[in-house]
Amino acid sequence: MINNTFKIDPNAAGEKKPSKLAPNASFTTDATDETTMSFYAAEDGSVSSGVWECPPCKFDVPSYPVNEMMTIVSGALTITNADGVAETFGPGEVVFAVKGSKMTWEITERLVKYYMTSS
């Protein structure tokens, strides 16, 4: 049975799995322990939600792979768009990334975010 409603909690007892969204060469400190805790994934892969955590890094995203709404739980993220405009996001702020967008991500403080993606 699938729960129709649930609490997405970064402190839940769920299983954090290694995540490889950030390229290995992009990490800017010795920490490379990027993780995802999935709370929901549609069978067809069209929607997913959970918690993602990543240490400081910087990498280019030539084409964002999904539509994503995220809420920053802790840390700091600077996104620079294709026009060179940078915006920094911190705890409590909500960010929306449009599928296909070109951008650069720079995580300057260990980031924890809630996410919901749609393909």
**Biggest sheet, in brief?**
8 strands, antiparallel
Rg of Cα set: 14 Å
Instruction: Give the terminus-to-terminus CA distance.
Output: 24 Å
Structural class by helix and strand composition: mainly beta
The SSE order reads EEEEEEEE
At the first level of CATH, the class is Mainly Beta
Number of helices: 0
CATH architecture: Sandwich
Q: What is the mean pLDDT?
A: 93
In helices, the fraction of residues equals under 10%
Could you tell me the number of beta strands? Answer: 8
Might you state the CATH topology name? Jelly Rolls
The backbone outline, from C-alpha atoms, is globular
Give the tally of structural domains: 1
- In the predicted model, the low-confidence regions spanning at least 5 consecutive residues are none
Strand content: over 45%
**What's the CATH superfamily, by name?**
Jelly Rolls
